[in-house]
Amino acid sequence: MLASLSDSGSTPLDPGLAGGSLKVGRGGVPSQYEGLIVQAANDCKAGLSPSILAAQLKQESGFNPKASSPAGAQGIAQFMPGTWKTWGEGGDVWDPNDAIPAQGRFMCSLLKRAKNPAKYNDCPTETVTDPSQYNGSPTELALAGYNAGWCAVERYAGVPPASFAKGQTYDYVKIIMASSRQLTLSGASGGSSGAWTRPTSGALGTVYHATGAHWSSGYHTGIDFTVPTGTTVKAVGPGTVITAGQGGAYGNQIVIRHADGKYSHYAHLSSLSVSKGDTVKGGQKIGLSGATGNVTGPHLHFEIRTGPEYGSDVNPIPYLRQHGVSI
Ligand SMILES: [Zn+2]
C-alpha cells in the first residue's frame, strides 16, 4: 500500500501502536466505552488508533465521566470550556456519548495537520513544512499538539523537547504511547508475515542529511530513533541478513537485503539475534538497540541503501512510506 501525504482517504496507523484490538475489562477499557472509542477512531479517516483515544481517556480522567480538574477541565475527556465549544457540537461535556466522539474529532484534526503541516498556515513560527523532517510519528505529533497546542509542534518541528513546559508535553506523549500499547491486546498485532514496519519504537531524532562534524561524510547518512539501550529492533520488511557483526564506527550492525534490491541497515546495537544468511520477516526482532561504536548516547541509527555498503544511502522516510509505514 502506498502511504499518502494527503489528508483524505484512509491511511495506515503508526506501526508500533496499531494492530490488535482494544483490551477490555480489568486493566483495560471499561466495556461500556469500547464501542464509543472504536467508533470515534473509525470515524477519523487519518488513521487514528482506538488505543490512543483509550490511553488519553485513561490518563485524562481514569475513564471517569464526572471528573473535573482545578483548571476547569470537564468530563471523561477533560475538555476545557473553550475547546468544548469548538469540538462538542453542542453536546453535553459530561456525557461520554458526546465527549468521546468530540475527542476523536479533535485528535483527528491534529493527525491531519501532523500529516500535512504545510496545508495550514496559522502559526506565528513555521520553519519546517516537510512532514518527513518532523521529529515524531504523526500520532506522536498529534498528541503533542493535543497537550501543548499545534503551534508548539510547528515551533519545534516535532514533539517539543523535555525543556519545554517542564517536560509536561514530552512526558505526555511518552505516557500515552506506552499506555496505548498496554491497552492493546497482543497477539493480533505484528503477526502478519511480510508486513513492513518502523525499525523500533521511539521518536525520530537526528534527521537524514543533517550536516555536522560528527559524520565522516559531512552529513548524516540515515535517521536516528531515540530509544534507550535494550529496546527491540525489528526488520523493517522481509529479507535476508547479509551482515551481522562489528562495523567500526557503526558498532554492532545488521544489514538486510530486501526483494526490491534495497538494503536496510541498523547500527549501534547492544545485541544481535540474527546471523548472516538468516531469512527474516517484516517486524521480526533482529536485536536490541544500544550505544556501540561511535555514538554520544544510545539510539538506533537506521539507513536505507541502494547497495550493501556505506555511501549508497537514500532517504529512509519516503522508502518506508512507500511500503505503507506511517512515519
Ligand atoms: Zn545516526
Map the helices and strands.
Blueprint: H1 31-42, H2 50-61, H3 81-87, H4 96-115, H5 138-148, H6 150-156, H7 168-182, E1 203-204, E2 223-226, E3 232-234, E4 239-246, E5 252-257, E6 263-269, E7 271-272, E8 279-280, E9 285-288, E10 300-305, E11 313-314, H8 316-322
Antiparallel strand pairs: 1-2, 2-10, 3-9, 4-5, 4-8, 5-6, 6-10, 7-9, 10-11
Helix pairs in contact: 1-2, 1-4, 2-7, 4-5, 5-6, 5-7
Bound molecules: zinc ion (ZN).
Zinc ion binds near residues 222, 224 and 301.
Q: Could you characterize the architecture of this molecule?
A:
A hairpin with a 5-residue loop joins β5 (about 250-255) and β6 (about 265-270). The chain folds into two domains: about 30-180, Orthogonal Bundle (Lysozyme), CATH 1.10.530.10; about 205-320, Glucose Permease (Domain IIA) (Distorted Sandwich), CATH 2.70.70.10. Strands 1, 2, 4, 5, 6, 8, 10 and 11 form an eight-stranded antiparallel β-sheet that branches. The chain is an alpha+beta fold. The protein has helices spanning about 30-40, 50-60, 80-85, 95-115, 140-150, 150-155, 170-180, 315-320; strands at about 205, 225, 230-235, 240-245, 250-255, 265-270, 270, 280, 285-290, 300-305, 315. It has eight helices and eleven strands. Bound molecules: zinc ion (ZN). Zinc ion binds near residues 220 and 222. InterPro entries: Cell_wall_metabolism_enzyme, Dup_hybrid_motif, Lysozyme-like_dom_sf, M23ase_b-sheet_dom, Transglycosylase_SLT_dom_1. This is Peptidoglycan DD-metalloendopeptidase family protein. It comes from Streptomyces lonegramiae.
